[in-house]
Design a protein that fits this description.
Distance between the termini: 48 Å
Number of strands: 14
Strand content: 35-45%
Helix content: 10-25%
Structural class: alpha+beta
Largest sheet: 7 strands, mixed, barrel
CATH architecture: Beta Barrel
Strand order of the largest sheet: 1-3-5-6-11-12-13
Amino acid sequence: MKLTTALKLLSKPKLLLKIKNSKSGDSGSDFVKSYKDLMKGGKPTADFYDAEMLNLVWETTPEAIATLLPPPLKPASRPLVFAFIAYYPKTNFSVPYHESALLVKASYKGEEGFYCLSMPVSDDMAMAGGREGWGYPKKMANFEFAREGDTVTGYTERHGIKFMQVKAELTDKVNNNNAALDELLGYGINPNGEFSDNVYLFKHSPSPMKSGIFDYPPLLVEGVTRFRPKTFTWAEVDIELTPSAYDPWHELPVKRMLGGFYTVGDNSMLHGRVLQKVNELEFLPYAFTKWEFEQNRP
């Protein structure tokens, strides 16, 4: 418990006593949780067990990335795009579900990480938790993700459009006869053990007031995910990006495919941190990654 939270409790002895005497289920309603249940329900990390993931890395145009980065993020040293499609058979927070994501390399005060542009999911609670807690740009989608022998295929579909389709051959090599293998290793990918990445997100809430833009200044959030693969296989990969006004992944075209990797293992999302507040008007044009902008609706 944070010190500031503890001090607030000490100033309200009746509330402190209520929390101390709380028992499981004593609220009398499933709509209302008891303090006892809330305290035992907290988790230090969001954990994924035996997560199956196909990751792809490609180089796009510098102009494409520069167009998509909200201030204060800046382009990284290389115009790189990371994407994945995954199946999570077991987690400590939700039912099994599928997920895919589109991320670009970005820089904040000289530190490079991944700015998440899109993260479709197949479970409503996984969507709500990621969007409301972190600011992940999650939307509900349909998925296909399968492995047959050494071939992995998959797609993500929304509004009847398969806007990303992937295929991988698990040859233990990356594209173009391992031409970019050293580059991939240089990005922190570790085929022999644990590795981590940091993700940049913008958490914001639209105002219900006619005169308002957001409920509070949008927040630039950083999160870290730790990957612990049990199996790791380099892959020669291909991706097809079909134009969609709802999910415009095609705006990051493949200029050079570096390669991919297929993993099965355990992942943990650590607690994040707020890096700074951002200007509401500067951020407003970038604030529509979580829902369809009204003119795009059929």
